[in-house]
Structure prediction request, 460 residues.
Amino acid sequence: MLDFRSATGFEGEMAAAKKDQSGGATGPVRAQRSGPLSGVVRAPGDKSISQRALIFGALSAGETTISGLLEGEDVLRTAAALRALGAEIEREGGIWRITGGPWRSPERALFFGNSGTGARLVMGAVAGAGVAASFDGDRSLRSRPMGRVLEPLRMMGVNAEDSGGRLPVRIGGNDGLTAINVKLATPSAQVKSAILLAALRAEGVTRIHEPILCRDHTERMLAAFGAKLKTESDGADGRFIEIQSGGQLRACDVTAPGDPSSAAFLIAAAVITPGSEIVVENVLVNPLRAGFYETLREMGADISFENQRAQSGEPVADIRARYSVLSGVEVAATRAPSMIDEYPILSVVASFANGETMMHGLDELRVKESDRLASVEAGLVACGVDVASGEDWLRIRGAGATPKGGARIKTHHDHRIAMSFLVMGGASENPVEIDDGATIATSFPEFLQTMTALGAAVET
Prediction:
Protein backbone atom coordinates (compact mmCIF):
# COMPACT_ATOMS: atom_id res chain seq x y z
CA MET A 1 0.00 0.00 0.00
CA LEU A 2 1.40 3.39 -0.94
CA ASP A 3 1.91 5.85 1.89
CA PHE A 4 3.00 9.48 1.87
CA ARG A 5 4.03 9.62 5.54
CA SER A 6 7.79 9.98 5.18
CA ALA A 7 7.60 12.62 2.46
CA THR A 8 5.04 14.84 4.15
CA GLY A 9 6.00 15.02 7.82
CA PHE A 10 3.14 12.84 9.10
CA GLU A 11 5.36 10.72 11.36
CA GLY A 12 7.05 13.75 12.89
CA GLU A 13 3.77 15.48 13.61
CA MET A 14 2.28 12.35 15.16
CA ALA A 15 5.34 12.11 17.41
CA ALA A 16 4.98 15.78 18.39
CA ALA A 17 1.29 15.37 19.08
CA LYS A 18 1.87 12.30 21.24
CA LYS A 19 4.57 14.14 23.18
CA ASP A 20 2.12 16.97 23.91
CA GLN A 21 -0.76 14.59 24.68
CA SER A 22 0.31 12.03 27.26
CA GLY A 23 -3.11 10.41 27.61
CA GLY A 24 -2.90 8.03 24.66
CA ALA A 25 -2.62 4.26 24.97
CA THR A 26 -1.88 1.16 22.98
CA GLY A 27 -3.13 -2.29 23.85
CA PRO A 28 -6.03 -3.11 26.20
CA VAL A 29 -7.59 -0.40 28.36
CA ARG A 30 -9.81 -1.07 31.38
CA ALA A 31 -12.40 1.16 33.05
CA GLN A 32 -14.03 0.39 36.38
CA ARG A 33 -16.65 2.02 38.55
CA SER A 34 -15.48 5.28 40.06
CA GLY A 35 -16.76 7.86 42.47
CA PRO A 36 -18.45 11.06 41.27
CA LEU A 37 -16.82 12.86 38.35
CA SER A 38 -16.08 16.56 38.79
CA GLY A 39 -14.04 19.30 37.20
CA VAL A 40 -13.80 21.73 34.30
CA VAL A 41 -12.19 20.40 31.12
CA ARG A 42 -12.04 21.01 27.38
CA ALA A 43 -12.78 18.71 24.49
CA PRO A 44 -10.28 18.55 21.60
CA GLY A 45 -10.82 20.74 18.55
CA ASP A 46 -13.72 19.83 16.31
CA LYS A 47 -12.59 17.27 13.74
CA SER A 48 -14.94 18.43 10.97
CA ILE A 49 -13.86 22.06 11.28
CA SER A 50 -10.18 21.13 11.60
CA GLN A 51 -10.30 19.11 8.36
CA ARG A 52 -12.09 21.84 6.46
CA ALA A 53 -9.85 24.64 7.72
CA LEU A 54 -6.77 22.82 6.43
CA ILE A 55 -8.33 22.13 3.03
CA PHE A 56 -9.71 25.65 2.52
CA GLY A 57 -6.43 27.18 3.66
CA ALA A 58 -4.57 25.05 1.11
CA LEU A 59 -6.91 26.34 -1.63
CA SER A 60 -6.62 30.00 -0.62
CA ALA A 61 -4.35 32.88 -1.50
CA GLY A 62 -2.25 33.99 1.47
CA GLU A 63 -1.59 32.47 4.87
CA THR A 64 -4.34 30.86 6.94
CA THR A 65 -3.77 30.31 10.66
CA ILE A 66 -5.65 27.71 12.68
CA SER A 67 -5.85 27.66 16.48
CA GLY A 68 -7.26 24.71 18.36
CA LEU A 69 -6.74 22.28 15.47
CA LEU A 70 -7.43 18.67 16.43
CA GLU A 71 -4.07 16.92 16.26
CA GLY A 72 -5.57 13.48 15.83
CA GLU A 73 -4.48 10.97 13.22
CA ASP A 74 -7.31 11.70 10.76
CA VAL A 75 -6.51 15.41 10.64
CA LEU A 76 -2.75 14.87 10.38
CA ARG A 77 -3.31 12.51 7.44
CA THR A 78 -5.20 15.29 5.66
CA ALA A 79 -2.40 17.75 6.39
CA ALA A 80 0.10 15.29 4.90
CA ALA A 81 -1.99 14.87 1.75
CA LEU A 82 -2.30 18.63 1.29
CA ARG A 83 1.47 19.04 1.54
CA ALA A 84 1.87 16.42 -1.16
CA LEU A 85 -0.50 18.48 -3.31
CA GLY A 86 1.66 21.59 -2.95
CA ALA A 87 0.44 23.46 0.14
CA GLU A 88 2.94 24.77 2.69
CA ILE A 89 1.85 23.70 6.17
CA GLU A 90 3.78 24.38 9.38
CA ARG A 91 3.04 23.74 13.04
CA GLU A 92 4.35 26.32 15.50
CA GLY A 93 3.36 25.33 19.01
CA GLY A 94 -0.41 25.29 19.05
CA ILE A 95 -0.79 27.33 15.84
CA TRP A 96 -0.92 25.87 12.35
CA ARG A 97 -0.01 28.00 9.32
CA ILE A 98 -1.13 27.07 5.80
CA THR A 99 0.00 28.88 2.67
CA GLY A 100 -1.97 27.97 -0.42
CA GLY A 101 -0.71 27.98 -3.95
CA PRO A 102 -1.08 26.16 -7.24
CA TRP A 103 -1.72 22.50 -6.61
CA ARG A 104 0.38 19.81 -8.28
CA SER A 105 -0.15 16.14 -9.05
CA PRO A 106 1.63 14.09 -6.36
CA GLU A 107 4.03 11.36 -7.38
CA ARG A 108 2.49 8.76 -5.08
CA ALA A 109 -0.95 7.89 -3.75
CA LEU A 110 -2.44 10.08 -1.04
CA PHE A 111 -2.90 7.82 1.98
CA PHE A 112 -5.72 8.86 4.34
CA GLY A 113 -5.52 6.07 6.89
CA ASN A 114 -9.04 5.85 8.33
CA SER A 115 -10.15 9.40 7.48
CA GLY A 116 -13.31 9.29 5.39
CA THR A 117 -13.82 13.04 5.73
CA GLY A 118 -10.30 13.80 4.53
CA ALA A 119 -10.47 11.43 1.56
CA ARG A 120 -13.91 12.51 0.33
CA LEU A 121 -13.40 16.27 0.70
CA VAL A 122 -9.95 16.21 -0.88
CA MET A 123 -11.41 14.27 -3.82
CA GLY A 124 -13.67 17.23 -4.51
CA ALA A 125 -10.84 19.71 -4.05
CA VAL A 126 -8.51 17.76 -6.37
CA ALA A 127 -11.25 17.57 -9.01
CA GLY A 128 -11.69 21.34 -8.87
CA ALA A 129 -7.96 22.01 -8.89
CA GLY A 130 -7.52 20.17 -12.20
CA VAL A 131 -4.68 17.94 -11.00
CA ALA A 132 -4.43 14.16 -10.94
CA ALA A 133 -4.15 12.15 -7.73
CA SER A 134 -4.69 8.64 -6.40
CA PHE A 135 -6.44 8.05 -3.07
CA ASP A 136 -6.01 5.14 -0.69
CA GLY A 137 -6.60 4.26 2.95
CA ASP A 138 -6.42 1.49 5.50
CA ARG A 139 -8.53 -1.66 5.41
CA SER A 140 -11.47 0.03 7.10
CA LEU A 141 -11.50 3.04 4.78
CA ARG A 142 -11.17 0.75 1.75
CA SER A 143 -14.46 -0.86 2.77
CA ARG A 144 -16.42 2.39 2.94
CA PRO A 145 -18.53 3.68 0.01
CA MET A 146 -16.95 6.26 -2.29
CA GLY A 147 -19.38 5.99 -5.19
CA ARG A 148 -21.75 8.46 -3.50
CA VAL A 149 -19.03 11.12 -3.93
CA LEU A 150 -17.74 10.06 -7.33
CA GLU A 151 -21.17 9.98 -9.00
CA PRO A 152 -21.89 13.73 -8.72
CA LEU A 153 -18.25 14.54 -9.52
CA ARG A 154 -18.54 12.54 -12.73
CA MET A 155 -21.71 14.49 -13.55
CA MET A 156 -19.51 17.60 -13.47
CA GLY A 157 -17.05 16.06 -15.93
CA VAL A 158 -14.51 14.60 -13.52
CA ASN A 159 -12.45 11.66 -14.76
CA ALA A 160 -12.46 9.12 -11.95
CA GLU A 161 -11.47 5.46 -11.67
CA ASP A 162 -12.51 3.43 -8.63
CA SER A 163 -12.47 -0.11 -7.28
CA GLY A 164 -16.13 -1.06 -7.34
CA GLY A 165 -17.18 2.15 -5.62
CA ARG A 166 -14.40 1.81 -3.04
CA LEU A 167 -10.78 2.90 -2.61
CA PRO A 168 -8.30 2.95 -4.26
CA VAL A 169 -9.59 5.81 -6.42
CA ARG A 170 -7.80 7.84 -9.06
CA ILE A 171 -9.00 11.25 -10.17
CA GLY A 172 -7.46 12.47 -13.41
CA GLY A 173 -6.59 16.01 -14.39
CA ASN A 174 -9.85 17.67 -15.35
CA ASP A 175 -10.36 20.74 -17.51
CA GLY A 176 -13.64 22.52 -18.02
CA LEU A 177 -15.85 21.14 -15.22
CA THR A 178 -19.51 22.03 -15.60
CA ALA A 179 -21.87 23.18 -12.86
CA ILE A 180 -24.68 20.79 -11.92
CA ASN A 181 -28.10 20.86 -10.31
CA VAL A 182 -28.29 17.88 -7.96
CA LYS A 183 -30.47 16.53 -5.17
CA LEU A 184 -28.61 14.71 -2.41
CA ALA A 185 -29.82 11.11 -2.25
CA THR A 186 -28.20 10.64 1.18
CA PRO A 187 -27.97 13.34 3.89
CA SER A 188 -24.17 13.52 3.84
CA ALA A 189 -22.09 16.59 4.63
CA GLN A 190 -19.09 14.86 3.06
CA VAL A 191 -20.82 14.38 -0.31
CA LYS A 192 -22.18 17.93 -0.22
CA SER A 193 -18.74 19.33 0.63
CA ALA A 194 -16.99 17.43 -2.16
CA ILE A 195 -19.46 18.85 -4.68
CA LEU A 196 -19.02 22.40 -3.36
CA LEU A 197 -15.23 22.15 -3.50
CA ALA A 198 -15.28 20.89 -7.09
CA ALA A 199 -17.85 23.57 -7.97
CA LEU A 200 -15.37 26.32 -7.11
CA ARG A 201 -13.84 25.67 -10.55
CA ALA A 202 -16.90 24.46 -12.47
CA GLU A 203 -18.34 26.78 -15.09
CA GLY A 204 -21.63 28.29 -13.95
CA VAL A 205 -23.70 28.04 -10.77
CA THR A 206 -23.89 24.70 -8.98
CA ARG A 207 -27.16 24.15 -7.12
CA ILE A 208 -27.53 21.47 -4.46
CA HIS A 209 -30.88 20.45 -3.03
CA GLU A 210 -30.48 19.17 0.52
CA PRO A 211 -33.88 17.70 1.47
CA ILE A 212 -32.66 16.65 4.93
CA LEU A 213 -30.34 19.11 6.62
CA CYS A 214 -26.88 17.92 7.61
CA ARG A 215 -23.93 19.75 9.15
CA ASP A 216 -23.21 23.07 7.45
CA HIS A 217 -19.58 23.78 8.40
CA THR A 218 -18.48 23.82 4.76
CA GLU A 219 -21.02 26.51 3.82
CA ARG A 220 -20.13 28.66 6.83
CA MET A 221 -16.41 28.36 6.23
CA LEU A 222 -16.55 28.83 2.47
CA ALA A 223 -18.39 32.10 3.04
CA ALA A 224 -15.70 33.19 5.50
CA PHE A 225 -13.02 32.39 2.90
CA GLY A 226 -14.80 34.54 0.30
CA ALA A 227 -16.74 32.04 -1.82
CA LYS A 228 -19.82 33.28 -3.70
CA LEU A 229 -22.36 31.13 -1.93
CA LYS A 230 -25.97 31.49 -0.83
CA THR A 231 -28.61 29.28 0.76
CA GLU A 232 -32.40 29.32 0.81
CA SER A 233 -35.18 27.18 2.24
CA ASP A 234 -36.84 24.63 -0.02
CA GLY A 235 -40.19 25.38 1.63
CA ALA A 236 -40.15 22.12 3.58
CA ASP A 237 -37.46 20.82 5.94
CA GLY A 238 -34.51 21.22 3.60
CA ARG A 239 -32.75 23.91 1.61
CA PHE A 240 -30.99 24.82 -1.61
CA ILE A 241 -27.31 25.78 -1.75
CA GLU A 242 -25.88 27.70 -4.69
CA ILE A 243 -22.22 28.38 -5.35
CA GLN A 244 -20.80 30.48 -8.17
CA SER A 245 -17.53 29.38 -9.73
CA GLY A 246 -14.62 31.72 -10.28
CA GLY A 247 -12.76 33.95 -7.91
CA GLN A 248 -10.09 33.04 -5.42
CA LEU A 249 -10.58 31.96 -1.83
CA ARG A 250 -8.89 34.35 0.60
CA ALA A 251 -6.91 33.15 3.61
CA CYS A 252 -8.34 33.88 7.04
CA ASP A 253 -7.80 32.97 10.69
CA VAL A 254 -9.78 30.05 12.12
CA THR A 255 -10.25 28.98 15.73
CA ALA A 256 -11.63 25.47 16.02
CA PRO A 257 -14.13 25.06 18.88
CA GLY A 258 -14.35 21.90 20.95
CA ASP A 259 -15.79 18.87 19.17
CA PRO A 260 -19.35 18.09 20.34
CA SER A 261 -18.91 14.45 19.35
CA SER A 262 -15.86 14.16 21.62
CA ALA A 263 -17.51 16.17 24.40
CA ALA A 264 -20.43 13.70 24.23
CA PHE A 265 -18.35 11.00 25.94
CA LEU A 266 -17.51 13.29 28.85
CA ILE A 267 -21.09 14.54 29.21
CA ALA A 268 -22.44 10.99 29.05
CA ALA A 269 -20.03 9.81 31.74
CA ALA A 270 -21.24 12.56 34.09
CA VAL A 271 -24.92 11.89 33.40
CA ILE A 272 -24.67 8.16 34.26
CA THR A 273 -22.19 8.35 37.18
CA PRO A 274 -23.95 9.09 40.52
CA GLY A 275 -23.05 12.38 42.17
CA SER A 276 -21.22 13.79 39.16
CA GLU A 277 -21.13 17.39 37.93
CA ILE A 278 -18.73 18.58 35.23
CA VAL A 279 -18.29 21.46 32.79
CA VAL A 280 -16.86 21.01 29.31
CA GLU A 281 -15.77 24.39 28.00
CA ASN A 282 -15.86 25.89 24.52
CA VAL A 283 -17.96 23.23 22.77
CA LEU A 284 -19.46 23.71 19.30
CA VAL A 285 -23.27 23.83 19.69
CA ASN A 286 -24.25 24.27 16.05
CA PRO A 287 -27.91 23.11 15.89
CA LEU A 288 -27.01 20.69 13.11
CA ARG A 289 -24.57 18.95 15.47
CA ALA A 290 -26.55 19.09 18.74
CA GLY A 291 -28.96 16.17 18.33
CA PHE A 292 -27.25 14.13 21.05
CA TYR A 293 -27.75 16.86 23.62
CA GLU A 294 -31.39 17.35 22.62
CA THR A 295 -31.95 13.63 23.04
CA LEU A 296 -30.30 13.55 26.46
CA ARG A 297 -32.57 16.38 27.62
CA GLU A 298 -35.60 14.44 26.39
CA MET A 299 -34.40 11.50 28.50
CA GLY A 300 -34.33 13.76 31.55
CA ALA A 301 -30.64 14.67 31.66
CA ASP A 302 -29.63 17.78 33.60
CA ILE A 303 -27.62 19.57 30.88
CA SER A 304 -27.26 23.30 30.30
CA PHE A 305 -25.48 25.45 27.72
CA GLU A 306 -23.73 28.36 29.44
CA ASN A 307 -21.75 31.38 28.23
CA GLN A 308 -23.10 31.00 24.68
CA ARG A 309 -21.16 32.98 22.08
CA ALA A 310 -19.88 32.95 18.48
CA GLN A 311 -16.41 31.82 17.45
CA SER A 312 -15.16 31.83 13.84
CA GLY A 313 -18.75 31.98 12.64
CA GLU A 314 -19.92 29.02 14.75
CA PRO A 315 -22.00 28.99 17.97
CA VAL A 316 -20.13 27.68 21.03
CA ALA A 317 -20.96 27.25 24.71
CA ASP A 318 -19.73 25.71 27.94
CA ILE A 319 -21.79 22.59 28.71
CA ARG A 320 -22.62 21.73 32.31
CA ALA A 321 -23.82 18.18 33.03
CA ARG A 322 -24.99 16.54 36.25
CA TYR A 323 -25.89 12.97 37.16
CA SER A 324 -29.50 12.34 36.18
CA VAL A 325 -32.24 9.73 36.43
CA LEU A 326 -33.09 8.89 32.82
CA SER A 327 -36.02 7.48 30.89
CA GLY A 328 -36.08 5.78 27.50
CA VAL A 329 -37.22 7.75 24.45
CA GLU A 330 -38.05 7.39 20.77
CA VAL A 331 -35.37 8.92 18.54
CA ALA A 332 -36.73 9.75 15.08
CA ALA A 333 -34.79 9.10 11.89
CA THR A 334 -34.84 12.83 11.14
CA ARG A 335 -32.43 13.41 14.03
CA ALA A 336 -29.76 11.07 12.68
CA PRO A 337 -27.83 13.65 10.58
CA SER A 338 -27.32 15.87 13.65
CA MET A 339 -25.88 13.09 15.82
CA ILE A 340 -24.77 10.26 13.55
CA ASP A 341 -21.46 9.82 15.40
CA GLU A 342 -23.07 9.87 18.85
CA TYR A 343 -25.31 6.81 18.59
CA PRO A 344 -22.74 4.45 20.17
CA ILE A 345 -22.46 6.59 23.31
CA LEU A 346 -26.21 7.28 23.33
CA SER A 347 -26.71 3.50 23.31
CA VAL A 348 -24.55 3.21 26.41
CA VAL A 349 -26.53 5.97 28.12
CA ALA A 350 -29.81 4.26 27.15
CA SER A 351 -28.70 1.08 28.90
CA PHE A 352 -28.71 3.03 32.20
CA ALA A 353 -32.17 4.53 31.58
CA ASN A 354 -35.54 3.22 32.69
CA GLY A 355 -37.56 1.87 29.78
CA GLU A 356 -37.12 1.41 26.05
CA THR A 357 -35.07 3.64 23.79
CA MET A 358 -35.77 3.12 20.10
CA MET A 359 -33.50 4.70 17.48
CA HIS A 360 -34.44 4.89 13.81
CA GLY A 361 -32.69 5.79 10.54
CA LEU A 362 -29.29 4.35 11.43
CA ASP A 363 -28.32 2.67 8.16
CA GLU A 364 -25.32 5.00 7.83
CA LEU A 365 -23.81 3.37 10.94
CA ARG A 366 -23.34 0.19 8.91
CA VAL A 367 -20.66 1.88 6.78
CA LYS A 368 -18.67 3.85 9.36
CA GLU A 369 -15.20 2.91 10.68
CA SER A 370 -16.86 -0.37 11.67
CA ASP A 371 -20.39 -1.69 11.39
CA ARG A 372 -21.30 0.35 14.44
CA LEU A 373 -24.75 -1.14 14.86
CA ALA A 374 -23.27 -4.63 15.04
CA SER A 375 -20.41 -3.48 17.29
CA VAL A 376 -22.73 -1.70 19.71
CA GLU A 377 -25.17 -4.59 19.89
CA ALA A 378 -22.44 -7.17 20.51
CA GLY A 379 -20.82 -5.04 23.20
CA LEU A 380 -24.05 -4.29 25.04
CA VAL A 381 -25.17 -7.93 24.96
CA ALA A 382 -21.81 -8.91 26.47
CA CYS A 383 -22.45 -6.36 29.23
CA GLY A 384 -25.86 -7.82 30.05
CA VAL A 385 -28.08 -5.29 28.28
CA ASP A 386 -31.34 -6.17 26.49
CA VAL A 387 -30.69 -4.92 22.95
CA ALA A 388 -31.79 -5.70 19.41
CA SER A 389 -31.06 -4.18 16.01
CA GLY A 390 -32.26 -4.22 12.42
CA GLU A 391 -30.85 -2.88 9.19
CA ASP A 392 -31.45 0.72 10.26
CA TRP A 393 -32.70 0.62 13.86
CA LEU A 394 -31.52 -0.11 17.37
CA ARG A 395 -33.65 -0.89 20.44
CA ILE A 396 -32.34 -0.85 24.00
CA ARG A 397 -34.42 -1.80 27.04
CA GLY A 398 -32.95 -0.21 30.11
CA ALA A 399 -33.92 -1.67 33.49
CA GLY A 400 -33.42 1.60 35.35
CA ALA A 401 -30.52 -0.07 37.14
CA THR A 402 -26.77 -0.31 36.71
CA PRO A 403 -25.82 -2.68 33.85
CA LYS A 404 -23.69 -5.69 34.71
CA GLY A 405 -20.68 -4.83 32.54
CA GLY A 406 -17.75 -7.20 32.98
CA ALA A 407 -17.00 -7.76 29.29
CA ARG A 408 -14.00 -7.44 27.01
CA ILE A 409 -15.06 -5.43 23.97
CA LYS A 410 -13.79 -5.80 20.41
CA THR A 411 -13.45 -2.25 19.09
CA HIS A 412 -12.83 -3.25 15.45
CA HIS A 413 -10.36 -0.32 15.35
CA ASP A 414 -13.26 2.13 15.86
CA HIS A 415 -12.49 5.05 18.17
CA ARG A 416 -16.12 5.75 19.06
CA ILE A 417 -16.79 2.13 20.04
CA ALA A 418 -13.65 2.20 22.20
CA MET A 419 -14.57 5.37 24.10
CA SER A 420 -18.24 4.42 24.47
CA PHE A 421 -17.50 1.19 26.29
CA LEU A 422 -14.84 2.76 28.50
CA VAL A 423 -17.52 5.24 29.61
CA MET A 424 -19.81 2.28 30.29
CA GLY A 425 -17.16 0.55 32.38
CA GLY A 426 -16.81 3.64 34.54
CA ALA A 427 -20.41 3.33 35.77
CA SER A 428 -21.37 -0.37 35.38
CA GLU A 429 -21.27 -2.99 38.16
CA ASN A 430 -18.14 -4.67 36.81
CA PRO A 431 -15.16 -3.29 34.85
CA VAL A 432 -15.23 -3.17 31.07
CA GLU A 433 -12.08 -3.65 28.99
CA ILE A 434 -11.49 -2.75 25.35
CA ASP A 435 -9.05 -4.70 23.22
CA ASP A 436 -6.98 -1.74 21.98
CA GLY A 437 -6.90 1.92 23.00
CA ALA A 438 -4.65 3.04 20.14
CA THR A 439 -7.62 3.85 17.91
CA ILE A 440 -8.79 6.56 20.34
CA ALA A 441 -6.07 8.87 18.97
CA THR A 442 -8.10 9.14 15.76
CA SER A 443 -10.32 11.83 17.30
CA PHE A 444 -9.56 12.33 21.01
CA PRO A 445 -5.86 11.77 21.78
CA GLU A 446 -6.23 13.15 25.34
CA PHE A 447 -9.32 11.06 26.22
CA LEU A 448 -7.78 8.88 28.93
CA GLN A 449 -5.94 11.83 30.46
CA THR A 450 -9.12 13.93 30.50
CA MET A 451 -11.25 11.17 32.00
CA THR A 452 -8.65 10.56 34.70
CA ALA A 453 -8.58 14.29 35.52
CA LEU A 454 -12.35 14.15 36.09
CA GLY A 455 -11.94 11.23 38.51
CA ALA A 456 -12.61 8.22 36.28
CA ALA A 457 -10.86 4.94 37.05
CA VAL A 458 -9.23 4.08 33.74
CA GLU A 459 -6.02 2.10 33.40
CA THR A 460 -3.87 0.62 30.65
